[in-house]
From TrEMBL:
<dbReference type="Pfam" id="PF00392">
    <property type="entry name" value="GntR"/>
</dbReference>
<dbReference type="InterPro" id="IPR011711">
    <property type="entry name" value="GntR_C"/>
</dbReference>
<dbReference type="InterPro" id="IPR036388">
    <property type="entry name" value="WH-like_DNA-bd_sf"/>
</dbReference>
<keyword id="KW-0804">Transcription</keyword>
<feature type="region of interest" description="Disordered">
    <location>
        <begin position="1"/>
        <end position="23"/>
    </location>
</feature>
<dbReference type="Pfam" id="PF07729">
    <property type="entry name" value="FCD"/>
</dbReference>
<protein>
    <submittedName>
        <fullName>FadR family transcriptional regulator</fullName>
    </submittedName>
</protein>
<dbReference type="InterPro" id="IPR008920">
    <property type="entry name" value="TF_FadR/GntR_C"/>
</dbReference>
<keyword id="KW-0238">DNA-binding</keyword>
<feature type="domain" description="HTH gntR-type">
    <location>
        <begin position="21"/>
        <end position="89"/>
    </location>
</feature>
<dbReference type="InterPro" id="IPR000524">
    <property type="entry name" value="Tscrpt_reg_HTH_GntR"/>
</dbReference>
<keyword id="KW-0805">Transcription regulation</keyword>
<dbReference type="InterPro" id="IPR036390">
    <property type="entry name" value="WH_DNA-bd_sf"/>
</dbReference>
<feature type="compositionally biased region" description="Basic and acidic residues">
    <location>
        <begin position="1"/>
        <end position="20"/>
    </location>
</feature>
Length: 253
């Protein structure tokens, strides 16, 4: 089945205001998912443009635009007279939301969930301690709001994950550490995936709700040691939930 119709490929505006065709998300995603599935292994050349047009049923213009998107995310690299080569996985922007989505069922091959947890182990306890000293009243109120949303949606994994991600995003921001604040936006997509995988894999989220609430209280009391201890307890729960998530996606340690 073709991913883009002939009519869509040929649609143009007048010559005075001609625009580049919009890249169809499913064309870019189809190539990306084939890369993630090792149909095109790292270091190997992609088929020629004409062959890609035939494979994916689209015009050369659409293929070129799709390859530009993939190159911007580190999946491929194009060189004149050489063609387009698949980059090593270490070069992929794995914190990009679309890249995470393309990885999809192949996520277990990247050990990404474990890597995210290691990063959180390093960052979040320190961020919680700084937040206990530096968080504004509004930031504490925002954390409390996110915690209440977690509590009220503990039986709904999607809503629970949204609130959980918001909690941790605000926590990093509330540290008032510029590097942590930058990391907050950088790891947002990866954190969303990791927390969602964990939250749908466990049946009981009461422990998580409890410790998140205790962290909010520690921040209110400006208890730095207590805040760090709560963050470490949250991460201990994350280890447990990660094991459940990995089992759920077919990967036991």
């Amino acid at each position: 089945m073709k991913l883009e119709s002939t009519e869509e490929q040929g649609r143009t505006e007048s010559s005075s205001s001609e625009r580049r065709p919009r890249v169809r998300r499913n064309v870019t995603a189809a190539i990306a998912q084939d890369i993630c599935a090792d149909r095109y292994p790292s270091g190997s050349p992609l088929p020629r443009e004409n062959d890609l047009c035939e494979l994916y049923g689209v015009s050369r213009t659409v293929i070129r635009e799709s390859l530009k998107v993939l190159e911007s995310k580190g999946l491929v690299r194009g060189k004149p007279r050489v063609g387009t080569t698949v980059c090593d996985r270490d070069e992929w922007n794995i914190l990009d939301a679309e890249v995470l989505d393309w990885m999809g069922p192949y996520i277990r091959d990247f050990d990404l969930l474990g890597c995210i947890l290691e990063a959180r182990r390093t960052i979040e306890p320190a961020a919680a301690e700084y937040a206990a000293e530096r968080a504004s009243a509004q930031e504490i109120a925002d954390l409390d709001k996110a915690w209440r949303q977690m509590r009220d949606s503990s039986g709904e994994p999607e809503s629970f994950t949204d609130a959980d991600v918001m909690f941790h995003t605000v926590l990093l921001t509330a540290s008032h550490n510029q590097v942590f604040r930058r990391l907050s936006s950088a790891i947002h997509a990866a954190l969303t995936y990791a927390l969602h995988a964990s939250n749908i894999a466990v049946e009981n989220r009461e422990d998580a709700v409890l410790v998140h609430g205790e962290l909010v209280e520690a921040l209110r009391m400006r208890d730095k040691a207590g805040a760090r201890e709560c963050a470490n307890r949250m991460l201990d729960l994350a280890v447990r939930d990660l094991a459940a998530a990995e089992k759920a996606i077919g990967r036991s340690k």
